[in-house]
């Protein structure tokens, strides 16, 4: 028979957003003389919107005192791992960031450290700036059941450097074990994107950001993504292929995304380094997706004034909060057509010159703003 503590913890693992259970767990810990009970109550109290700023400061000071006193106890050997950042929410370890540095984290150490941390069972956000075997070490970890946000790698600043891209052959296997994942931000390469896009456990996924990825192919397998019924809750799709290998997003992939019967909740769509061109603008308009989109980012491409006219003539275009069409092939005429419809919601400067377009310069450029 489960103890009351085990029962409460099991209930939180099953329903980690149940405030009543959090309060009950905090009360139980306080009755046992466990200082983490007070810590949980303080953090719950800080969420109350009715609190004055003075009250919140007082609560925050006391919570920080408790954390300093009991950090090692609550973190276990996680406290010994270099380049680690973390955050507690409701008395549980909520966010864990493992930075990429010269001091590499031993894979076994991270797995064992998560197991030793009393408060790690409701971890919601995990950021690994590098892999180095960490992803493989976390496979089958029971401490990832509640994970909502996972990021691997980090955006580059400036020019693309293949040596900085995180290689992660075990990435898809790990993601397949995340039943509650809501955000995936992958700045990584050398994993099977076809398998990733087909995973059946992504029914809670809202944000999918795929930068780089190479399998020595020229295009993302977007038809697979578009045909996955598990992605019905996806609202943000950000795609930025690696340079040099040709357009990573072709017309067929664009057509699959905008006409998908499953991706009906998309509000933010980013398609970088695509040769969709003016024909792709027609696909976007005729698909009806502009009735739903808030942001459309088509930077780095071959859209001309003809495509601008196709977009501008669509009554639904004015629904957009932002259209970013920089580094395409528009003249001032095309930019003006779009600006008359969108006003300040258009980013259309910095177009390619004829020479840059002939050299397909957009395939080599980096801008992660």
Main attributes?
single chain; 369 residues; alpha/beta; Leucine-rich repeat, LRR (right-handed beta-alpha superhelix); 12-stranded mixed sheet; 14 helices; elongated
- Low-pLDDT segments: none
Decide which structural class fits the backbone: alpha/beta
- CATH-defined topology of the domain at 148-364: Leucine-rich repeat, LRR (right-handed beta-alpha superhelix)
CATH superfamily of the domain at 148-364: Ribonuclease Inhibitor
Our count of helices gives: 14
- State the helicity in percent bands: 25-40%
Please provide the ordered H/E string of secondary-structure elements.
Answer: HHHHEEHEHEEHEHEHEHEHEHEHEH
Q: How much strand content do the residues show?
A: 5-15%
| Main sheet attributes: strand count, strand direction, barrel closure | 12 strands, mixed
Radius of gyration: 24 Å
So what's the CATH class of the domain at 148-364?
Answer: Alpha Beta
Number of strands: 12
Which architecture name of the domain at 148-364 does CATH use?
Answer: Alpha-Beta Horseshoe
- Tell me the span between the first and last alpha carbons: 54 Å
Mean pLDDT: 91
Basic shape = elongated
Molecular structure report:
The chain has helices at 4-14, 19-31, 35-46, 53-75, 107-116, 134-138, 171-175, 193-197, 222-226, 251-259, 277-287, 305-312, 332-342, 354-358; strands at residues 84-89, 92-98, 125-128, 149-152, 166-167, 183-189, 207-212, 236-240, 268-271, 295-297, 322-324, 346-347. It has a domain at 148-364: Ribonuclease Inhibitor (Leucine-rich repeat, LRR (right-handed beta-alpha superhelix), Alpha-Beta Horseshoe), CATH 3.80.10. Helix 10 links the parallel strand 8 (236-240) and strand 9 (268-271). Strands 1, 2, 3, 4, 5, 6, 7, 8, 9, 10, 11 and 12 form a twelve-stranded mixed β-sheet that branches. It contains 14 helices and twelve strands. 37% of the residues are buried. The chain is an alpha/beta fold. Helix content is 36%, strand content 14%.
